[in-house]
């Protein structure tokens, strides 16, 4: 008798008609063979064996370098269940349209069966997925980003409890590219792209879009959040989870070398992109990182901005769309190392800054998390780590202060729901355009965002000790157009204030949008920042927030009657608080 997995693989093979089927065991011998094969067929270029042992460069098709949100679909039975912020396609239409593309698409190719676990191997919070793909590059990345192979098959046994994902490269024609999610069936179909966020199905497709739908049904949370442990001088570690849109510094924050290390404040990394959280027996939200690696944005990463990842990525790593120096080392803008002469750019052409940057702005490294010197001792704790605070943040040149704390859970959900951020190169489309990106989940929520907010509100009632909620903005600029806050390792100063608030100690003043640190509450010793810059960073301008209210009103309007009444009430309360200060100032 074949297992449900074997039956599904057989059906998909009948559709895609591969020449061979290879069941991945995740072994060293297997990946060595695949790497050899990719070196031979040009998918991989070997890097300097001395300085970057077991590392490879991959240059993708230049039309396939980022997530493609316009061809990402939620295929729920009812359009309303996808909501106004997702693209929707009826399941039958998606099956017909994309099924026709899959038909025979693996002829002459190998179909890899990639069983994987999202989360620590023995954690009850973890889940199994199985991806079928005709891309060896995807297999190599999945081996770093998940617990892949025999270990997952052993966990699954003959159970039908896995999330199936079918992935095919097709001819990489952007007009025949579809990333489809079937939340009722818990199924993923991705066709026509080899880019990580579209093709490593464990990541955005399963761990966020499908998992968010599962989490709502089952009473837990799947969030686009890093998880870090902040160690205080007492040695106690407090865990925080932070949601920022793509390419807004989650990896750098999660792996930060603290500017306050001399006073005993250190940061430990649990995860850099995704958190799965359940209510623990202690009444706290317990979080695991479902991933096993970091798929980080390379440009802007260097010894001063993220020394931890720089130490992690010089072995067993894959680099996608970066430059290649004459000594066969990877190079990107902001790496803080000389490139020397004779560098090739990410398209394999002699580097000419007049033509293009050396690395694509969304070029990536894929690195095993365990290689990071800052990895938390508890990063694979099967019970997860207890989360004491959530941090929301966006890339805002104006309006949002460095940090504020929400008044309570309901207000915090409103703060998350109205988050805005300027777009980045992680997705195709214009960069630097302000858009509302609730909880940094706009591209990743597998169902109607209004139902998602209702789920957040319900979780607040369900968790006996809910995390406090903060909002940060590292990106505010002064009138000279320069960033006001130095960011990176200095961000620990803001985290320290949060810790003090969690412990009921940090001093704060109330503003219409929430509590901000009192004038002397942030530890600024050793930091060269003027009083004027600090004031500008922390300014809450009622006129800016009134404009913000109009924008969020228009955004909320899209959700019609589905918008939770609590969020409308928070909107009104904010409006009243803003009016009160405006009148008082007159
Ligand atoms: C990512 C993204 O790759 O958010 O993490 O795009
Ligand atoms: Mn992300």
Keywords:
about 575 residues; alpha/beta; Phosphoenolpyruvate Carboxykinase, domain 1; Phosphoenolpyruvate Carboxykinase, domain 3; nine-stranded mixed sheet; 29 strands; globular; binds oxalic acid; binds manganese (II) ion
Give me a quick take on this structure:
With 586 residues, the protein is α/β, with parallel strands linked by helices.
Describe the overall structure:
The chain folds into two domains: 4-43 and 66-218, 3-Layer(aba) Sandwich (Phosphoenolpyruvate Carboxykinase, domain 1); 223-289 and 379-585, Phosphoenolpyruvate Carboxykinase, domain 3, CATH 3.90.228. 29% of the residues lie in helices and 22% in strands. It has 16 helices and 29 strands. The protein is globular. It has 586 residues and is an alpha/beta fold. Strands 1, 4, 5, 6, 7, 8, 9, 10 and 11 form a nine-stranded mixed sheet that branches. Strands 12, 13, 14, 15, 16, 17, 23, 24 and 27 form a nine-stranded mixed sheet that branches. Oxalic acid binds next to loops. Oxalic acid binds at residues 67, 197, 246, 273, 295, 426.
Helix-strand layout with pairing:
Blueprint: H1 4-16, E1 20-23, H2 28-41, E2 45-46, E3 56-58, E4 72-74, H3 79-82, E5 87-88, H4 91-102, E6 110-118, E7 127-133, H5 136-145, E8 147-148, H6 150-156, E9 163-168, E10 178-182, E11 187-191, H7 196-199, H8 202-218, E12 221-223, E13 225-231, E14 237-243, H9 250-254, E15 266-271, E16 275-279, E17 285-288, E18 293-297, H10 307-312, E19 318-320, E20 323-324, E21 330-331, E22 364-368, E23 385-393, E24 403-405, H11 409-417, E25 420-422, E26 434-436, H12 449-462, E27 468-472, H13 492-502, E28 508-511, E29 514-517, H14 531-538, H15 542-557, H16 565-585
Parallel strand pairs: 1-6, 3-19, 4-5, 4-10, 7-9, 9-11, 14-23, 23-27
Antiparallel strand pairs: 2-3, 6-7, 6-8, 10-11, 12-16, 13-14, 13-15, 16-17, 17-23, 18-22, 19-22, 20-21, 24-27, 25-26, 28-29
Helix pairs in contact: 2-5, 11-12, 11-16, 15-16
């Amino acid at each position: 008798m074949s297992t449900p997995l074997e039956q599904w693989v057989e059906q998909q093979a009948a559709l895609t008609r591969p020449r061979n089927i290879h069941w991945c065991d995740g072994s060293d011998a297997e990946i060595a063979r695949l790497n050899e094969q990719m070196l031979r067929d040009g998918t991989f270029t070997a890097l300097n064996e001395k300085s970057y042992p077991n590392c490879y460069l991959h240059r993708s098709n230049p039309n396939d370098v980022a997530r493609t949100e316009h061809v990402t679909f939620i295929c729920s039975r009812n359009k309303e269940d996808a909501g106004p912020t997702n693209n929707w396609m009826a399941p039958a239409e998606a099956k017909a349209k994309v099924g026709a593309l899959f038909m025979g698409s693996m002829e002459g190719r190998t179909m890899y069966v990639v069983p994987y676990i999202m989360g620590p191997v023995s954690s009850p919070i973890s889940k199994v997925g199985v991806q079928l793909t005709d891309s060896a590059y995807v297999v190599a990345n999945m081996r770093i980003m998940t617990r892949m192979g025999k270990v997952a098959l052993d966990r699954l046994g003959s159970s039908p409890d896995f999330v199936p994902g079918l992935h095919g490269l097709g001819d990489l024609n952007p007009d025949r590219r579809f990333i489809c999610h079937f939340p009722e069936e818990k199924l993923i179909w991705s066709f026509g792209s080899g880019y990580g966020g579209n093709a490593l199905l464990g990541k955005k497709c399963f761990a966020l879009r499908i998992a968010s739908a599962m989490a709502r049904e089952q009473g837990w949370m799947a969030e686009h959040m890093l998880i870090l442990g902040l160690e205080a001088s007492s040695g106690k570690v407090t865990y925080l989870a932070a949601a920022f849109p793509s390419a807004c510094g989650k990896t750098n924050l999660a792996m930060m070398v603290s500017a306050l290390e001399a006073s005993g404040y250190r940061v430990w990394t649990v995860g850099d992109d995704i958190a799965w959280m359940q209510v623990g027996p202690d009444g706290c939200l317990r979080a695991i990182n479902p991933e096993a690696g970091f798929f980080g944005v390379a440009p802007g990463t260097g010894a001063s901005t993220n020394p931890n990842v720089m130490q992690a990525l010089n072995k067993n790593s894959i680099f996608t769309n970066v430059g290649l120096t004459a000594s066969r080392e990877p190079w990107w803008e902001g790496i803080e190392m000389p490139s020397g002469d004779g560098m090739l750019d990410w398209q394999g052409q002699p580097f000419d800054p007049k033509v293009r940057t050396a690395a694509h702005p969304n070029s990536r490294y894929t690195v095993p998390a365990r290689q990071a010197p800052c990895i938390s001792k508890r990063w694979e704790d099967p019970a997860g780590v207890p989360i004491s605070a959530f941090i929301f943040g966006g890339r805002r040149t104006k309006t949002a202060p460095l940090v504020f704390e929400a008044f309570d859970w309901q207000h915090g959900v409103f703060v998350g729901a109205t988050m805005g951020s300027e777009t980045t190169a992680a997705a195709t489309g214009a960069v630097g355009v302000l858009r509302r990106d609730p909880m940094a989940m706009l591209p990743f929520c597998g169902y109607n965002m209004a139902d998602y907010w209702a789920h957040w509100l319900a979780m607040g009632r369900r968790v006996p000790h809910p995390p406090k909620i903060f909002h940060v903005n590292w990106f505010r600029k002064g009138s000279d157009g320069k960033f006001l806050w130095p960011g990176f390792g200095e961000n620990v100063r803001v985290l320290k204030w949060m810790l003090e608030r969690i412990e009921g100690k940090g001093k704060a003043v109330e503003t219409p949008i929430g509590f901000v640190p009192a004038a002397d509450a942030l530890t600024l010793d050793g930091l060269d920042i003027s009083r004027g810059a600090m004031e500008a960073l922390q300014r809450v301008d009622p006129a800016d927030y009134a404009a913000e209210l109009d924008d969020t009103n228009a955004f909320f309007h899209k959700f019609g009657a589905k918008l939770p009444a609590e969020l409308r009430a928070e909107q009104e309360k904010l409006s009243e608080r803003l009016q009160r200060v405006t009148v008082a100032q007159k």
